[in-house]
DNA sequence: TATGAATGAGCATTCATTCAT
DNA sequence: TATGAATGAATGCTCATTCAT
């Protein structure tokens, strides 16, 4: 089950989500993920949600607003582990190693991907075509968090745990390997895929590759 | 300049491409890349190509046929370096090192990506939504070439040059790093990006990470 | 005035026919009758009906659905006089003669044709090209009613009023004469056509031709 | 085999029909008969005929011209038996009875229908929608021949063989019965239809019905 | 004479959006 | 607030016809 399914199960009487709104969001996520934003019709979404077509436009002025309403919350959560608290946690526990940090990250982000698969699919698909989404992404993901990760990497480089390359290069190399692992897990991860081992191999690869 | 631009510049009198066909393909590539397949209208493509809308449908029975006509040739070339000749070249030159092989690959594939950027964008965007494209991909890319790469990796593992992990795992790790490098180069590669150095760092990262 | 004009004049608030629906049906009947189904454009029908083109497709999923919606009700009424009640009426009144029965039929069916002229034109024109219409016709017209007519003819044959030919042959001969009368009346019935006399002559012709 | 098939088999070198023309006519007849004029595309006809689309328009300026070229010759032959020669033949042989005349007519016209089925289908379908066809029909069929038939009927009425109704009424009654016979033969004439007997019954019905 | 590429108006149908109820 | 009928512009696609070759 994905995050949004859980969120929408909790019927909050006084909350901001009415039952119909939930069903619209649910239907839109499913449809956008399956056919892409452009190829999804509001008519189809309305039918799947069991509401009138007009109801969608009462809550979201345009079809694109609906897309943004779906994608924006995930954007914020994309960088959740890099908010100040977590950063400090890492930096404070001076005994933490880069390996421990990497393991935590991989585990955490993999869980996040699994729990937000549909919306992430939509996000990745639609970002190139909607400047609004790109702006949101840069604002939420690319600014602050990147700076924080840079500091973490610098911290471990000072500790001599990883190779003294430019921090963004280190980030790119590590991120590529992790992303490749997660994507592969989702594309071919049905059979003959030993997830535990593959994750371990990926971590070892990064550690070796970044050893000073 | 991209490959297809070069291809379409050669005005071949008796060739299979008429002038109008070329202009249609060119306009379609540009439009699909810019807005995505679904959001591109045949009307717009026709106008951009300077032909009547009916002319598009004389050459390509449906809009999807046009997409496939654009994407299919790139699919074949995706795996070009893995055809038998190249494979043998590598395996025959027994003195070749894994490093040499890796360098050749990175250079070759980066060139390919640069020279087919628009169509690759379209391909990646549209594959999830068109079973025909997925089928073409599996047929051209996923079957034979994968087997060949596996053999190359086994060859270098036997030579003791790289770590004895499962060949597909090695492939994944190396491919992720290279893909990450190419994507980053294209997303942020305008300023403050020293391409030569970043490529070198990526190769060193893979070599270190895969050292036995 | 034709039946459908009367039907659509009654503005039923809670009925199933909205004002726009009526106007669409009316416009479609006129257009189909005048130019044939294939040569009628939905654009023209929409304009004649004073609605947007999209409105037609809200009520009738396809152009063919519109045709069927027009033609189907007439199909049911085609065989109205042969439903069980009427059949029994004839058979019960043992004193009824074949002549009385024939007169009733001719009068009744001529009225029906006159009151459904446009739609019958459409029906006859389009039946050869639409399997759906043919199926409807066989289902509503060709099955039960034919059997009932057969029984009526058998009844009069047993009474010795008409020649003992196979019932379907008797039906064919009588039907041809009546149909020929009605068609002629409508094709040339403007001037020099004494309808009363021609009907009488047709009836006498059938009676004489079928005398035992 | 139908008349036009025979006509087009004779490859006349110096005749007015080239091979391509024949194939166009053949393809058009088949297509028009199957789908109706409006629903037939010149593209489909060209393909079926194995010629280029342009070739059709070299021979027939418009699609409608092609229709007329097909239908017109049949129109002339529709009234063949009523040309002066035949008329005189009947009137001269004073010993001829109305029955002999009727039999000759039924046989002759049935053969004609059988040998021109496709084109007659097209003619009947399209006459209501093309004033040109209606004009041709009135010119060829409705004028002279009708007058001649009237004279023949008057002749037999004077001989006292048939009832002294208005000649056109007599024609209508006889024609309806014959037409009904021919149509029924073609619609249901596959099984349980004894053609010889039904023809005889029809003739007897007419003779009895028209007896003075 | 025959071709078939090219046309652009026209086609049935779908679309996101509006608005009276 | 929610509806769903209505809209008309836009869609992918087909059409009869033209014309350079």
Provide the descriptors you would attach to this structure in a database record.
homotetramer; Tetracycline Repressor, domain 2; DNA-binding; Arc Repressor Mutant, subunit A; 212 residues; mainly alpha
Structure characterization notes:
The structure is a homotetramer. By secondary structure, chain A is mainly alpha-helical. Chain A folds into two domains: about 1-60, Arc Repressor Mutant, subunit A; about 70-210, Tetracycline Repressor, domain 2. Helix content of chain A is about 75%, strand content about 0%. The first copy, chain A, has twelve helices and no strands. In chain A, helix 2 (about 20-35) crosses helix 5 (about 65-80), helix 2 (about 20-35) crosses helix 8 and helix 11 runs antiparallel to helix 12 (about 195-210). Chain A is elongated, with a radius of gyration of 20 Å. The N and C termini of chain A lie far apart (about 40 Å). Chains in contact: A-B, C-D. Chains C and D meet through helix 11 and helix 12 of C and helix 11 and helix 12 of D.
